[in-house]
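[Automated response] Your request has been received and processed.

Submitted sequence:
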Amino acid sequence: MLHDYYKERFNQNNQSQWQSNQQHSNETVSNEEFEQMQRDLQDLNNAATALFRIPVFFSHQNLFSLGPVPPVPPFTKQQRFIIRMFKEIKKVLLFPRTIPNTDQYPDTTLENIRTLVNSSYGVAAALLVPARPVEGTDEPYSPYLQFEPAMGYQRGLPLLLVIERAMQDKASGIWTGQASPFSPLVWRSDAENSVELFFESVQWKEALQNWAGQVRSGYFAQTGPEFEYKFDRHD
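Generated structure:
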């Protein structure tokens, strides 16, 4: 009889343990399913949002020319500025493209730029103080920073230009504001938190939204139907 008692207690303990394990397993599965559902919804939202990321050309110095090689944290102000500007463009649901980071074609550099310009609906460009002169020259910045926005302007694309204050005396051409019907925004990088101050400024936000609106209008004008049929119910 004592044997039956211990046997019954043993079975009860096993049953209780099994129920506890089963409940824990169900909770784990439930949590995993919930997390997977969240990931699926996020993927779906990202896919839907991506449909509105109109491609634009983001012309800028690469991070290697704006700081140590290879780029390592802590990044320089100029490197942080380019990264932040990239994110700001994406916030307004535009997709910033550049050579060779997002796009690369088997042609010469100028042909690659022309291909990218012709397949974009706007151009944003930033001219910042480089960490060193252009390799093999005494030029303060790459000539492509003149070619790229100029080719975009020739095509009639909306332009958004930003120049660091210390580069104004060294820049020429499209960056002077004299050869083009607009003046670039000026980033004054002296302050410690100058990157945050610039991108939180009313001047930047207004310029970004105005440019994004022009880009989006041009996109719909070029991709919309050639004829739009409208019917008046009174006809």
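Summary generated for your ticket: The mean pLDDT is 80. The first strand starts at residue 54 and ends at 60.
If you did not submit this request, please reply to this message.
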